[in-house]
Amino acid sequence: MARKFIEDKVLYRQKEAALHNLVKSLTPMILEVGKHNVNEIPNHLKIIFIEKEFMPLFAPMADDDIRSCKIVNFEKPAVELSFFTKHKYYLKKKVNLAYIRDYLGMQLNELIEKKDEIILLIPLEMEKENRELLKEQLDSYIRQIEELKNIIDNLEQYDFAISNYEMGYLYTELSYKYQTANGNYDNENSHIIKSNELEERINVIFIDEQAIQKPIANQQKKVDAYLATFPIQFTEPSKVIYLKRK
Question: HSE of 173 in the Cβ direction (CA atoms, 13 Å)?
């Protein structure tokens, strides 16, 4: 369901407060694994289960995009719930050579700056032991510089990939089953929002309390095997750049 963006900030706060107050005024339903048709419920997220009889109360704000409170399944009360973790990532196997050249050039400049700093520090260090440590560090930077120069000079001999796979961006998803108007059952997936440092975020999930009884789950390994073939890796805050000889 597409959410309706509320541009007026005052109206947004009013609707947000009304939604939170409504949720707080209701007694949530307690679901138990084994007793109800649900697998393990993630305890690091704020999830409120509401019996379907109270669903009409949410109609005035069901379409509103309230970021701190997500109405997950309005008009589709769940008879079965399955929470699972999804690993979201991108993997680029075709990488612009100019981008790689510029990136490695910046890495090279940083190493050269670090090397030059240590060259200046060595004569100033009075302790022999510390001087030796600095020399070891210097040798390490010199080796890295030579290796990186060699890669830059022979980029055509390498394959490249860029991915945020190893950053471990994991998200909680919900797969739920509900009964349609004609009596059949259908399935939908929805992302479950999580709180952050600025605000608590809650998820409202409507339940068909009479019908909810059973469980499910899923994941993958091909990407691990593919990325493991790249011996050279540069880790950035939000991604990893991979290199290997062809």
Answer: 15
